[in-house]
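Lecture 7 notes: from sequence to structure.
We start with the chain below.
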Amino acid sequence: MLRDYLPSAGHYDEIAAVEDGRRQLRPHWRTFVGMLAALGLDHLDALAGELSRRVRENGVTYNVYDEAEGAERPWNLDLLPLVLPQSEWTGLAADIEQRARLANAMVGDLYGARRLVREGLLPPALVYGHPGYLRACHGINPPGGVHLHVVAFDLARDPAGRWCVVSQRTQAPSGTGYALENRLLCSQLFPDAFRSHHVRRLSGFFGTLQNTLLGLAPAGQERPYIALLTPGPHNETYFEHAYLARYLGHALVQGADLTVREDRLYLKTVEGLQRVHVLMRRLDDEFCDPLELRSDSQIGVPGLMQAVRAGTVVMANALGSAPLESPAITAFLPAICRALFGEELRLPSVESWWLGEEAAAAIALPKLKDLIVKPANPRLRFEPVFGSRLDAAGIGEWQERLRAQPQDYVLQGLVPLSYVTGWDDGRVVPCELMLRAFAVSDGRGGYAVMPGGLTRVAPPGREAVSIQRGGGAKDTWIVGPETAPPASLLPGRVTPAGLQRASGNLPSRVGESLYWLGRYGERSENAARLSRTVITRLAEAEPMPTDLSAMLARICVRNGLLPASGATEPVSEEVLWRSLRTSLTDAHGAQGLAYAVARTHQCAAGLRERLGEDHWRFLQRLHQSVERLRGQVMDVGRALDLLDTCILHLAAVAGLHSGYMVRDQGSLLMTAGARVEGVAFLADALAEGIAGGAAGSGALLETMLELGASTLTYRARYLRPPELLPVLDLLVLDERNPLSVSAQLIELRHALGMLPDHAAPEALLEELLVPSEHEQVWLDLLAGESEAVQMIAMLRGLVEQMAELSDAVTAAWFAQTQDLDMSMVTE
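Predicted structure tokens for the same chain:
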């Protein structure tokens, strides 16, 4: 099992120790490695494949933009966890808790008494010279004196087995959501081992986080509104933002979703303005407010700083902690801990020297070959420089640079990272690790430490562990006797008075994305059905009738599957096939299936916290079905297989929407979007069919039934070849056919009628001519073949009405630029 696991000398081995001259498994690893051996390498390799499949289906990503996969790069989760004993973790967690309290006290001092600077415990240049020191935060005293609600520490183990802190994250620490997803995935792969090892659960940490956030609201707020502020779907850790918002039950918002009015923070919703009391942010300080911080920020909220000063909203974490993330701070922490707490700092930092101190520079500069150069603050943006990789000339050049601007640089010692097992192509191999530990404020002056954290790994010899640079992650198991029952996120029993059935406060941006998710989903299905209809006809032995070929070409043009010239000039079957084949896989060219599916996936990716796992899984499968064929040669058989797969996945998504989504504002907007698209497509296709002479062509009528997904219904009712009157009755007038024009219009009117009142859509809905409500008019037209021109005009009129209605919906509920009505405010 471990024949390829060969750690290098000079590194701590997490799973084995040398005893009496022999390598022996450490006690807390023995049972787990035995279980792995019992499973066998082949079974473990199958589990690794299953893990990779689940990661992709769940859409777990870490976005990196300088790679081909970009925003779609799957999370690199290793099969085998890091196992640590409870006996070791108890002491380490207490040391991490001390570190978290110290960091919080330092932020409070920097913007309060400033004792650390006055007494010389921190050099003024390190504090006031740091671009992240925010003078606007002076005098702000958050509830309970807690500035840092979540803090993270990157830990490494030296060759002697001692943990030390390499860096700390105090602004907007990332990784808690990934740690939870790692746990959910890995515990399902090894359920027996997970139970028998009594792995400490993570829910208690998130329960503490939730309770802490609930307790931050200004006094007098019975139910505070909490939102999680994200930079948006293009951020590298957006998956985690959506995941945490869904798990904790908070709104996921972007800067454009928020506005400050009269020193209060509000969320722009479909119903109006909703007061926000607590903002859990995932933006670094400088981007949060373009008025007072970074003026070019497009993702912040103008006026947010003033709302924080006024005490009407609480930020978690508070602004202003960026100086604590500087590696230059670490050398001063032992003395600061003694001064503030009267205690020794129990968890040391990696050895560091800020070159702004002459004594530190004198010690560190001669040892540059064995150290790492890091920037003292973010003004200097460069990757750490390893002295061991520099030749003599490089050492000389760097020493001159460091002496010229010493205050800008820090030298740190290099910790040989410990080794742990990793899985690679059917083998257990060594990899180096770094552990990110998390602490959350408990609301009582202390911190609760997540039992485990986010373990990051990389192949040996990297000298740095970074997921952004291709590293991976592991679940972290703290094993030992069960010490407490599993914690729950539920605060207590819900009484009848606490029942909730309304789910308003839908951000306007989210509402618009849901509306377009409905439209693009329906557009994808229409493109798939149209493409399948045409390709099926092209695959037949006999050439298509001229009238059918011309009608299908016109419909393809109107739906972006064929260049516009195809509407006026005859199109050969070869040209039609070539255009359709391109539209199936080219997401950036013709607006065919690939384009519509890509836009559907893009809308859904920005709504991760709103979609259930099954909903997202089917959308992922749909997207991957098209992506796998990009750039490949497509024959008729593969094209039809792809279209069948897409239609099945789209039907599953539609079924989940109609059968499982709560009928809230988001669901209503999705329904409205789908029905707008569906009515426009079917009415347009029917108009083209009638114009093409459907009254006298069985082939055109069959095609119209197929595009309306009503072929079987027609055959079951009439048991005869299609005729114009019953075909149009089924596709236009019959309200019992859910895909008819009338049924879709009635559903559209109902969905929009359930949304908050707005005059423009309401007026258009009143003018909407639902064919079944004017049935006799339509029947008279259908009975007289000479009335085709009027019938076509009425169908085309419906298409135009859908475009006008869509514009009115956007202006009424989604527009972000108008002056917001302060009378529509929910406190």
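Points to note: The longest strand covers residues 427-441. The longest helix spans residues 508-539.
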